């Protein structure tokens, strides 16, 4: 069941937990590689059938796709991540109990007892719960659902996630397995493209910039209150050259959104690990891309190196490049965000 911020519509069914397994015409008992595809969608929308897998059946490979419940409803040897990773700040819920109580109040459930609240929510229709998210948004457009994964409390029966990925990685509690990760050059078109749907959106964003920036760009819970106004202005100066939000500065807005969604946070950990990393890739749905016989050697990241080596797939060329400030790292570090620190300490009162 999907709920999107673009049209405030929901689609699908709560009865969605199905798995799809695709196999070629192979001999029974053949040992084939298996690709497990977990669809994206910022925990808010998407489904297993978003990509047509029939082209992959030209190869001796098994493809597995599945649905999972999204938003408030809702064992590998290597991986491929695109448009973010578990290290991206937006993939973790901040103040999840507070958000759950807000949702419960909207749908008419008690909030004084978490047990009673949870029991009440079980009997609310999925459509009602998904639509209730709209009332939790501070603005008419919002990127992500308020309900993303959170760490389960100590003593929880059969817990799945007991540490935030950042903390687990810092403690050496994660497996060191091969990973390919990528971003696209115009990542910020999601959701910035929706700002073009109504001619009043960009002017409203400009007039309320200091207030909306902290909500839309997800730093309400990661930056002290007294810094939010100045940070909003620094962001505008960096990406919009200090000019008003509008059609003339829309490309800059797209680039800012791009950095916030997937780029910088995703790459923090990779700077210290010997893994291959790529960027500037474009997704080709239902298009078969030929092999490149004389492509460049894809070099892994060198641990501790100041510059980040990455594979850039451009419109005309594919080449290895390097940058000491990938994703405007220095700028984002200077703003005082405490996204990862929030997973280690309790939030201060001023947040």
How is this fold's topology laid out?
Layout: E1 2-3, E2 10-11, E3 19-22, E4 34-37, E5 62-66, E6 79-82, H1 96-106, H2 114-122, H3 126-132, H4 165-170, E7 179-182, H5 189-192, H6 201-207, H7 209-216, H8 228-240, H9 250-267, E8 278-279, E9 308-313, E10 318-323, H10 329-333
Helix pairs in contact: 6-7, 7-8
Descriptive notes:
The chain is of the alpha/beta class and 351 residues long. 25% of the residues lie in helices and 11% in strands. It is built from 10 helices and 10 strands. It has helices at residues 96-106, 114-122, 126-132, 165-170, 189-192, 201-207, 209-216, 228-240, 250-267, 329-333; strands spanning 2-3, 10-11, 19-22, 34-37, 62-66, 79-82, 179-182, 278-279, 308-313, 318-323. Strand 9 and strand 10 form a beta hairpin.
Compose a concise summary of this entry.
The protein is α/β, with parallel strands linked by helices and 351 residues long.
Helix content: 25-40%
SSE string: EEEEEEHHHHEHHHHHEEEH
**Largest beta-sheet details:** 3 strands, mixed
Count of separate DSSP helical elements = 10
Secondary structure class reads alpha/beta
Extended strand count: 10
């Amino acid at each position: 069941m999907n709920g999107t911020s673009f049209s405030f519509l929901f689609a699908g069914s709560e009865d969605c937990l199905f798995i799809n397994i695709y196999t070629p015409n192979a001999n029974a008992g053949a040992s084939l590689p298996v690709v497990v595809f977990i669809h994206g969608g910022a925990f808010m929308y998407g489904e297993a059938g978003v990509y047509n897998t029939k082209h992959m059946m030209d190869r001796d490979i098994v493809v597995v796709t599945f649905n999972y419940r999204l938003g408030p409803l809702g064992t590998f040897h290597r991986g491929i991540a695109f448009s973010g990773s578990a290290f991206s700040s937006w993939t973790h819920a901040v103040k999840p109990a507070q958000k759950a109580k807000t949702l419960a109040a909207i749908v008419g459930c008690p909030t004084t007892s978490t047990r009673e609240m949870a029991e009440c929510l079980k009997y609310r229709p999925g459509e009602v719960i998904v639509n209730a998210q709209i009332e939790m948004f501070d603005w008419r457009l919002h990127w992500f659902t308020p309900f993303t994964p959170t760490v389960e409390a100590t003593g929880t029966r059969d817990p799945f996630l007991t540490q935030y990925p950042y903390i687990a990685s810092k403690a050496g509690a994660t497996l060191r397995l091969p990973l390919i990760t990528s971003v696209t050059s115009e990542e910020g078109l999601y959701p910035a493209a929706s700002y073009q749907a109504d001619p009043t959106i960009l002017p409203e964003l400009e007039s309320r910039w200091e207030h909306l920036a902290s909500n839309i760009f997800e730093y309400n819970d990661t930056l002290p209150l007294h810094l939010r106004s100045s940070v909003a202005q620094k962001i505008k100066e960096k990406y919009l050259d200090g000019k008003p939000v509008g059609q003339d500065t829309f490309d800059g807005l797209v680039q800012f959104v791009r950095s916030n969604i997937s780029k910088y946070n995703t790459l923090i950990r990779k700077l210290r690990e010997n893994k291959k990393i790529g960027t500037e890739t474009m997704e080709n749905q239902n298009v078969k891309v030929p092999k490149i016989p004389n492509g460049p050697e894809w070099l892994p990241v060198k641990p501790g190196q100041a510059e980040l080596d990455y594979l850039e797939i451009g419109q005309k060329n594919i080449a290895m490049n390097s940058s000491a400030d990938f994703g405007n790292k220095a700028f984002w570090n200077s703003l005082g965000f405490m996204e990862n620190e929030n997973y280690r300490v309790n939030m201060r009162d001023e947040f």
